[in-house]
Design a protein that fits this description.
Belongs to the HTP reductase family. The chain has six helices and 13 strands. The chain has 255 residues and is of the alpha/beta class. It has one domain: Dihydrofolate Reductase, subunit A, CATH 3.40.430. A nine-stranded mixed beta sheet has the order 6-5-4-3-7-1-8-13-12, sandwiched between helices. Strands 2-9 form a two-stranded antiparallel sheet. The longest helix has 12 residues. It starts with 10 loop residues before the first helix and ends with a strand.
Length: 255
């Protein structure tokens, strides 16, 4: 999408979004702001809750108005985080093309890559960094040595061989990252929805389309209490607004 197609948001659109975005004077809603960055979870989905037609299939859902919104959100965060699957399938730029954005306002791209699937060499992120249009990306991986072309933050495996998200966020905060915009994909979204205490705000774009059965859903694991199934997660302090043909929902994820 050419940079000229990213337009400034109206003052009312900015007013709608800003209460859900990080502020230097506002503490993290999780109450852990001293050790963790402010985390905004944001993604686009279809009317049937799908974020892609299938795993690994790049699927455009956002209209031009919400694409401009995405770049406004990027302007407001220190870092953008995606999983390795999204980095490989979507070839994202993860830079900010909002009108007037300077290089020092570019967010830090972060790829969560537990098994080292993603390589900076030949990637869109690496090319944009070489062209001075974005920052050199970082990666977060499990164990091992960091000897790659990009900076890697190494975390230890938690029980079950998974990546512990609180540890990841603490690592980023220790590197000076005060706010993180999480853009997907499904594995990352679902993992963070299962740990609501780590997320401060959620901003979801809902496109007026159905992707159909077999799509890739934003859907956290089943939660049970005393053997009884309950809601996996629920938003509070919600508000809605139309951006072009899309609807945007903002809310806070209760712990």
């Amino acid at each position: 999408m050419p940079a000229t197609d990213i337009t400034e948001l109206s003052s009312s659109e900015q007013t709608f979004l800003d209460p859900y975005l990080p502020s230097p004077s506002a503490p993290s809603a999780s109450g852990k702001s001293a050790k963790l960055p402010f985390v905004t979870l944001t993604y686009a989905c279809s009317l049937d809750g799908m974020i892609a037609l299938a795993p690994g299939v790049r699927t455009a859902l956002s209209g031009p108005e919400t694409k401009s919104m995405t770049h406004y959100l990027r302007l407001k965060h220190d870092a953008i985080l995606v999983g390795a699957g999204t980095a490989v399938a979507d070839l994202p730029s993860l830079n900010c093309r909002y009108p007037g954005a300077e290089f020092d306002e570019q967010p830090q791209p972060v790829i969560v890559d537990p098994r080292r699937r993603w390589k900076v060499e030949g990637s869109a992120l690496g090319r944009l960094a070489e062209e001075g249009k974005g920052r050199q990306p970082w990666a977060v991986s499990l164990g091992g040595n960091s000897d790659e072309a990009c900076k890697r933050l190494v975390v230890e495996e938690s029980e079950g061989g998974r990546m512990d998200w609180e540890t990841v966020l603490r690592k980023l905060k220790a590197e000076g990252i005060r706010s993180v915009m999480v853009e997907g994909g499904a594995t990352v979204i679902n993992a963070l929805l299962a740990e609501p205490g780590l997320v401060d705000s959620v901003i979801v774009t809902i496109a007026p389309t159905w992707l159909g059965q077999g799509g890739l859903a934003a859907c956290p694991a089943v939660t049970t209490v005393d053997g009884r199934r309950v809601n996996a997660a629920r938003l509070a302090d919600t508000t809605w607004r139309q951006f072009g043909a899309d609807a945007v929902l903002c809310g806070r994820l209760g712990a």
